[in-house]
């Protein structure tokens, strides 16, 4: 009888573990990375541009798939104009002028691609490299935690002072709708502005919750792939691939939902700053913060953070791999059902965060799968993490720790064209069963 009960327990545990794993990391009945993504963008030839976009777009404008557009200099969509981009359209950023496209506050972008016909922003060069052009900037009317409204004028190369007004963001409309980005790729953006400042692949400032951000891939960005200052963006099925900067950098009171998304890092792609998959901060300089406003709060579910490496332990020992997540003081993070695989360590808290009940209640990790990391959760510059291990290792959080190769962990991570980073459903994990 006892043996039968024991066998039944094993079966139940295996079934429950298998079911739970289906829910961890990126999910889907099929691999949603298929068709619209591109993991070999440097070799892709999109053809020669035949039309130029420059200066200001001040009235409703549509870009057509039949044309290839060359973006020259700092292009602004302003005066409440809407820029509509047909599915399959290609926009290439000029290398010499480090071109950028900005949707100014009050204007919109409607870039609604298809799974089999995505919209592509890329470099004009034959031999493409990170930072070849600027990037895509969207400015909205949602609040941040800064005093007054803000500006991103410092993020442009050779911006005329008369254009500074078009670089402002922020207001009181948390539901700001700045348009649609769906089935969109942004490649080789993030030109360098100074020693520590880069443009970004997709830079949102004051963008509200009604803006659609679904199936967006940023690859080979020299700066951050996805950056948000304030606002309330909701990212779904976002892909960051081999960014030199952070994959997701969320700050200045951003109220973010991040869902079913993936960041794939390379040990050999890094800019001058320490880069992570997810950086959650409320500010860089506390002097500029209005504490009567909300600080940064990120809700994240079904994320996969992975370092693409042939020998992860060797790359960690060489100092080529950083932590996956960094949490700053006065910021909140609630992350669940996510996978962190191949980092050093998995998570770091800013050293000014005191480890107490109040702060730990603001930083939640539950139903996580930590795999192949050199340590799990630490405070910055402190090797003693016993209190954090005890807290997050509590069975109430249902966090799991493992040491498995990517080939064992993911369905088909080695596929160069169509990788599948969903967890293997039938992967066996060690489970302690107490018997008498």
From TrEMBL:
Domain of life, per lineage: Bacteria
Protein name stated in the entry: T9SS C-terminal target domain-containing protein
Organism: Neotamlana laminarinivorans
């Amino acid at each position: 009888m006892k043996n039968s009960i024991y066998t039944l327990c094993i079966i139940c545990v295996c079934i429950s573990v298998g079911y739970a794993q289906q829910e961890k990391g990126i999910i889907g009945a099929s691999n949603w990375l298929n068709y619209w993504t591109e993991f070999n963008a440097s070799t892709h030839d999109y053809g020669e541009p035949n039309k130029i976009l420059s200066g200001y777009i001040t009235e409703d404008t549509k870009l057509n798939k039949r044309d290839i557009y060359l973006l020259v200099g700092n292009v602004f969509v302003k005066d409440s104009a809407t820029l509509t981009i047909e599915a399959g359209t290609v926009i290439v950023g000029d290398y010499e002028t480090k071109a950028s496209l900005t949707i100014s506050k009050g204007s919109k972008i409607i870039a609604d691609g298809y799974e089999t016909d995505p919209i592509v922003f890329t470099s004009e060069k034959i031999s493409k490299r990170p930072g070849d052009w600027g990037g895509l900037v969207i400015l909205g009317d949602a609040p941040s935690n800064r005093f007054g409204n803000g500006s991103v004028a410092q993020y442009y190369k050779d911006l005329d002072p008369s254009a500074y007004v078009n670089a402002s963001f922020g207001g009181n409309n948390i539901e700001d709708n700045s348009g649609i980005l769906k089935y969109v790729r942004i490649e080789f953006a993030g030109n360098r502005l100074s020693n520590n400042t880069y443009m970004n692949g997709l830079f949102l400032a004051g963008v509200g919750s009604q803006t659609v951000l679904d199936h967006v891939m940023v690859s080979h960005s020299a700066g951050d792939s996805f950056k948000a200052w304030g606002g309330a963006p909701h990212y779904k099925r976002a892909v960051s691939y081999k960014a030199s900067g952070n994959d997701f950098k969320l700050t200045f009171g951003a109220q973010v939902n991040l869902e079913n998304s993936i960041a794939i890092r390379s040990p050999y792609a890094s800019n001058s700053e320490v880069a992570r998959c997810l950086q959650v901060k409320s500010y860089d300089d506390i002097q500029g913060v209005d504490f009567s406003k909300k600080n940064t709060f990120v809700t994240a579910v079904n994320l996969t953070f992975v370092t693409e490496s042939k020998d992860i332990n060797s790359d960690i020992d060489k100092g080529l791999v950083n932590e996956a997540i960094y949490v700053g003081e006065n910021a909140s993070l609630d992350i669940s059902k996510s996978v962190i695989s191949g980092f050093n360590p998995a998570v770091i808290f800013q050293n000014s965060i005191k480890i107490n009940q109040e702060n730990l209640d603001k930083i939640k990790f539950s139903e996580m799968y930590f795999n192949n990391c050199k340590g799990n959760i630490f405070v910055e510059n402190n090797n003693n993490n016993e209190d954090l291990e005890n807290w997050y290792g509590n069975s109430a959080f249902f966090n799991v720790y493992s040491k498995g190769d990517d080939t064992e962990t993911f369905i088909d991570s080695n596929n160069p064209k169509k990788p599948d980073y969903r967890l293997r459903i039938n992967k066996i994990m060690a489970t302690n069963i107490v018997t008498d």
